[in-house]
Design a protein that fits this description.
Layout (H helix, E strand, L loop, with lengths): L1 H22 L11 H12 L5 H14 L4 E6 L9 E6 H8 L3 H18 L4 E5 L5 H8 L5 E6 L2 H13 L6 E4 L2 H4 L6 H5 L8 E6 L5 H12 L2 E10 L5 H11 L6 E4 L3 E5 L7 E4 L3
Parallel strand pairs: 3-4, 3-6, 4-5, 6-7, 8-10
Antiparallel strand pairs: 1-2, 7-9, 8-9
Helix pairs in contact: 2-5, 3-6, 5-6, 10-11
Length: 285
């Protein structure tokens, strides 16, 4: 059954990609009315400059892709027939199947770098789905002053991620371990409880890459959105992973608090600034 579902998912992804190519823009950002969003798109998609940190992170990716080590992974997402199911996998197979593409992770790096430059302060970043920690490294390396909180259900994956971060000399990443449905943004201390709507819990950038089901994606979005401001940016990964992920993406875009959305096929961007026009863009990367 799982093999058949995987084949159907691949067929859907191929169809969705072809449809995206025929309907997406590739105009360098022309047609985007907000100057901020125009330059954001120009920088994210068309900037060809590399950053020194990328080489080291990609070295860690290659190490993981060559690793013969096996770990016991606890899965609370779409790969498990029973939530919390544990199964043994090679690290190299996890890296091949789960790691974000380099070009997508590098766009996230540019996003963090650009937003930090605009607001001129450290950012609070939340990631759902740590996996092996490569994307987390990209989010954290953009500026060491940023506070990155990453949520992951599997202890084995967290240990692999910690090794990645140690090798990259990344400090200050906060890891929340356990089923994300139970751990997402709890009131863990008095400061959080007393300041739910304050700066302490305002999320600048959220990256959702956990349980790829419609229900879970919408649940995570609505939970995180309670901690968003007009300047927050949400990144929804794998929005065309399956028909139900595409449905979840469309439902998120239709939310009244969402003013602008950008479909880049591999992921989508959500904006809340009331100064933006209510528009949905499709862009090629």
């Amino acid at each position: 059954m799982q093999a058949e579902m995987a084949i159907r998912r691949k067929i859907y992804q191929a169809w969705a990609y072809i449809a995206h190519l025929f309907t997406a823009w590739n105009t360098g950002g022309e047609g985007i009315h907000s100057p901020y969003l125009f330059y954001l798109v120009r920088m994210l998609i068309y900037d060809q400059n590399s950053f020194y940190a990328w080489r080291d992170i990609e070295r860690e990716r290659r190490r993981l892709l060559l690793s013969d080590e096996s770990v016991d992974v606890q899965d609370f997402g779409t790969g498990a027939s029973t939530p919390g199911e544990t199964y043994r996998r090679r690290v190299r197979d996890i890296a091949r199947d789960s790691l974000e593409q380099a070009r997508v992770a590098q766009i996230l790096f540019r996003l963090v770098n650009y937003v930090g430059h605009v607001v001129q302060r450290p950012l609070r970043i939340v990631e759902l789905g740590t996996s092996l920690g490569i994307t987390t490294a990209y989010l954290a390396k953009a500026d060491s002053r940023n506070h990155v909180t990453t949520y992951e259900g599997s202890d084995a994956l967290i240990q692999q991620a910690r090794t990645v971060w140690k090798n990259l000399d990344i400090r200050g990443i906060e890891v929340v371990e356990g089923n994300i449905d139970k751990t997402l943004l709890p009131s863990r201390d008095a400061r959080t409880r007393d300041n739910i709507k304050g700066e302490e819990t305002t999320i600048d950038i959220a990256f959702l890459d956990a349980n790829h089901t419609r229900e879970a994606t919408l649940r995570y979005y609505h939970t995180l959105q309670q901690h968003a401001s007009e300047q927050s940016i949400f990144v929804i990964d794998d929005i065309h992973h399956s028909p139900e992920m595409t449905e979840a993406w469309r439902e998120i875009c239709a939310q009244k608090e969402v003013t602008t959305s950008m479909d880049m096929f591999y992921f989508g961007l959500i904006f809340f600034d009331k100064h933006y026009l209510k528009r949905h863009y499709k862009l090629r990367i």
